[in-house]
Amino acid sequence: MSRSSCARVQWLTIWLGCLFVVTQILSTSHGGFCGAGFRNRSVGGIAIDAHGVVSLPTREDRSLFLKTIRERTPKTPDAMTAPVGLRRISLRKLDEAIRTARRDRHGMLPDEINYLAGLQRIEYVLVYPEERDIVLAGPGEGWTVNEQGDVVGVTTGRPVLHLDDLLVALRSTSDARAEGITLSIDPTEEGRRNLDSYLKKVKQFSPAAVAGMEKALGPQQISVTGVPVDSHFARVMLAADFHMKRIAMQLDPSPIEELPSFVQMMQQSRTRPTNLMPRWWLACDYKPLSRSEDGLAWRLDGGVKAMTEDEIVTSGSVTGTGKANPLAQKWADQMTKNYEQLSVKQAAFGHLRNLMDMCVVAALIEKEDLLGLAGLTAPTLLSDEAALEVITWHAPKSIATQCSFLRAGREWIVTASGGVDIDPWQVVAKSEVDDQVAPIRAKSTPAADAPWWWN
């Protein structure tokens, strides 16, 4: 976009994407009550048609979804209700429990399996060669359905892990290593050229001009690598990216006071951005993995970081500068600092952090050959060809452009793009011995007669 084009307009923020709310797998997935039509029409506050076009569901669809998922999500089993610092899950026995449940329940899985016993994070990966097992451990508690239709912890409000996401993470390690796991929402080059041409004709901004910009830029294209685009996993990435941009560009109020919008920061700043485009994306932010001396116990310590870089648009093409606008960097740092609090207020961010934990675990298992070390086979969890398939949804392909018109002291245009970048192999490349990890393994040894989860 040329500087002369920018000089003709009032300060206009453009968010590249349309309204999208975090999706939710229903409580009776893997053989549940609802067909694909219901899921794609209203689940999670979005509608996706057979062509992959994302739009808003009706108010009736929203109400029906929340009512239905609450009716179909039974009370948490009493043994799982109380919050605990460490809830353990045996991968060997989970695999067996899935096969048993599918055989005895006509292919359907109970909530406690779909929601992995209410596990809310994976903090430890523990290997037991004697038991031919790998145990995942982290905080857990009972669950409930919040007002947005997300299944979250009854006391913390943090989203629980989903079996479907774990399946995708475990089965996508090769793709993650080869191309990374990414999501991006971007306008086409043609759309950028159309917008530049349109702006040259605009002399005064009005609601009609804003609508003209939305039409000129056209639908944004959604691209996904490393995981199936029609999976819940991909929808979580899209939801997190959406909410980040909505908050940054003040299209939605920030759910926490500690994180003002980027627009607010611009209004309060004496400086204004140039014709560079701030790009924000969410990436892994982990410390080196902690491990025992024998490599049988591992601890994860990390989460999500907001990243930023300025971009230049020239004749419809985009070039990264490798530099960050100080104001855009400040906003990214604030989001990173408050990410844990955001994860409670907006479940999409917590879901994304859970995805990253699961991807790091999957990459660790592959890199260190923990399956071979444990002598573990888990065909139901690990095989794409197994009877347990990942639930598919209409794959999102495009999102309409949405603009928000704001006045400021100077005339400018700000465009925001970005996405999600999950690189678990970079995380597992660094580790260090920690004497405090081995005792956790000693306390978590699975008993021969233990169920697939325990506290």
**What structural class do helix, strand and pairing data support?**
alpha+beta
Characterize the main sheet.
9 strands, mixed
Mean pLDDT: 82
Count the helices. How many?
19
Q: What characteristic shape results from the CA principal axes?
A: globular
Uncertain spans, ≥5 residues at pLDDT below 50?
A: 1-29, 31-36, 408-413
Helicity, as a percent range: 25-40%
* Terminal Cα span: 57 Å
The number of strands is 20
Give me the Rg, rounded: 23 Å
Strand content: 15-25%
Protein architecture, described:
With 455 residues, the protein is of the alpha+beta class. The protein has 19 helices and 20 strands. The strands form 4 sheets. Strands 1, 9, 10, 11, 14, 15, 16, 17 and 18 form a 9-stranded mixed sheet that branches. Strands 19-12-13-5-6-4-20 form a 7-stranded mixed sheet. It has a two-stranded antiparallel sheet with strand order 2-3. A hairpin with a 2-residue loop joins strand 14 and strand 15. The longest helix is centred in the last third of the chain and has 21 residues, at 347-367. The radius of gyration is 23 Å and the shape is globular.
